[in-house]
Design goal:
With 457 residues, the protein is α/β, with parallel strands linked by helices. It folds into 2 domains: 266 residues, Ribonuclease Z/Hydroxyacylglutathione hydrolase-like (Metallo-beta-lactamase, Chain A), CATH 3.60.15; 180 residues, Rossmann fold (3-Layer(aba) Sandwich). It is 31% helix and 21% strand. It contains 13 helices and 22 strands. The strands form 4 sheets. Strands 6-5-4-3-2-1-22 form a 7-stranded mixed beta sheet. A 7-stranded mixed beta sheet has the order 7-8-9-10-11-20-21, with helices on one face. A 6-stranded parallel beta sheet has the order 14-13-15-12-16-19. The longest helix is centred in the N-terminal third of the chain and has 32 residues. The model has no long low-confidence stretch (mean pLDDT 94). Bound molecules: zinc ion (2 copies).
Length: 457
């Protein structure tokens, strides 16, 4: 049995692996490369997609699902196994992704008229997304399904709605993929499930070298940043992933808004995808933890409060600035790689009273990372801007387990895996986690390389 790594190697984007189980080839995730690695999307998959029998998705984030329609265009014709919530979220994520690619291609064709460069074109279009959706075959958490050479079971990864760890059983041997590992105590979601035993583990390492701020304190910290900015007369712009992060911010603001602390403040959720995601949340209570279920039973929806305005259309989005009074604007994309948030950056970056608050991971090469790294000038949608706004970040909203949380999750194994593969991390983070695992657990740790095959036996 061989495991091949075709993405999220030496970086966090483009997750894609292929397991060759005695000739049956199974894909695990098929994510987009982003930031510095984005050009890799134009290359081939590193294997023949026609040979893949089944594709299993850990979750809907675009760096795990964004190349699914491309995989199908290149000949994959099998089932896509995911949770039901992941399937629903993928539909909106992939449509949005197709839309952003069309926009980028149009922009590029406009530029290349002037510079005569060859065009890359979109990787796929909406019709390819519609075709991809027909391959989805949802399964439930913690139910074992026989796939012939092995059986599959999903466990809750606690990372975003519908996120799963994958356990594949071959007789007595078990291979576990952590997918993106969530954090205990996150709102809406159950804590990442403990895994009892595995022979091989593929583990993400995004935060293998650092810890995050406390989940319990983050509502207060968020509120303080907002109140300080509004007092100065600025706006708060929060670039946030439409799925997960946006809902968690609302969840934290909800109690303050309900108590009147934010009275007179408009909170715009300016992302059609975030609105659709919020509707999908409502459809999947099977993914919620006890706390959220009891909040809902008490009649309080964490995603609705006084002052909240969901803006779906372009016109509503533009009208945000006609609006008088203090504003919080939550908009995607989270790493400022596209989407409406770019317009809010253009409006606010040159305002010294405004705050741009980052709440998620900013991959190398993205506008978000450059702002966080202190860029004083930045070019967005052909506009050159002087950065005068306050740029700040909160790591407590991370949807990924921090170093201590990963290690504590690993300690719950009764039978620790003989072999651990660490992917989905920038080299420094991955190496630090590898060191920690080698020191504490008696296990062989491998940091896989792009396109390499590793023998499991
Ligand atoms: Zn993720
Ligand atoms: Zn990821």
């Amino acid at each position: 049995m061989n495991l091949e790594f075709h993405g999220a190697v030496g970086g966090v984007t483009g997750s894609h692996m292929v397991l060759d189980a005695g000739g049956m080839r199974v894909g695990i995730d098929a994510g987009l490369f982003q930031g510095n690695e984005a050009s890799r999307n134009q290359a081939d998959f590193g294997h023949d997609p026609r040979s893949i029998r089944v594709l299993i998705l850990t979750h809907a984030h675009i760096d795990h699902s964004g190349r699914v329609p491309l995989l199908i265009k290149k000949g994959f014709s099998g089932k896509i196994i995911s949770t039901a919530a992941t399937a629903d979220l993928c539909e909106i994520m992939l449509r949005d992704s197709a839309h952003l690619m069309m926009e980028a291609a149009e922009h590029e064709s406009h530029q290349s008229d002037q510079r005569r460069r060859p065009l890359a074109g979109p990787l796929y279009e909406e019709k390819d997304v519609a075709a991809a959706m027909r391959h989805f075959t949802p399964i439930r958490y913690n139910k074992e399904h026989d796939l012939g050479r092995f059986s599959i079971r999903f466990m809750d990864a606690g990372h975003i709605l519908g996120s799963a760890m994958i356990e594949l059983s071959f007789g007595k041997k078990r291979l576990v993929f952590s997918g993106d590992l969530g954090r205990p105590g996150a709102p809406f979601l159950r804590d990442p499930e403990k895994v009892d035993a595995a022979d091989w583990l593929v583990l993400e390492s995004t935060y293998g070298d650092m810890d995050h701020g406390n989940i319990a304190d983050r509502g207060k910290i968020l509120l303080n940043i907002i109140l300080e900015t509004l007092e100065r007369g600025g706006n708060v712009v929060i670039p946030a992933f439409a799925i997960g992060r946006t809902q968690e911010i609302l969840y934290e603001l909800n109690p303050y808004a309900e108590k009147g602390v934010l009275s007179g403040v408009s909170c715009f959720v300016d992302s059609p995808m975030a609105i659709s995601a919020t509707e999908i949340y409502a459809r999947h209570p099977e993914c919620f933890d006890e706390e959220t279920l009891s909040l809902l039973r008490s009649g309080d929806s964490p995603l609705e409060f006084p002052g909240i305005q969901y803006t779906r259309s372009q016109d509503e989005s533009k009208a945000i600035y006609d609006h008088r009074g203090p504003r919080i604007i939550i908009s995607a994309s989270g790493m400022c790689t596209g989407g409406r948030v770019l317009h809010h950056l253009i409006k606010n970056l040159e305002q010294k009273d405004s705050t741009i608050l980052f709440v998620g991971y900013q991959a190398d090469g993205t506008i978000g990372r450059r702002l966080l790294d202190g860029a004083r000038k930045i070019r967005i949608l052909d506009k050159d801007l002087d950065v005068k706004a306050q740029i700040t970040s909160m790591d407590a909203f991370s949807a990924h387990a921090g170093r201590k949380e990963i290690l504590s999750w690993l300690r719950s194994f009764r039978q620790f895996p003989d072999k651990v593969f660490l992917n989905h991390g920038e080299p420094r983070a991955t190496r630090a986690l590898a060191e920690a695992i080698r020191t504490e657990f008696d296990s062989e740790v491998t940091i896989p390389e792009m396109g390499q095959k590793y023998l499991l036996s």
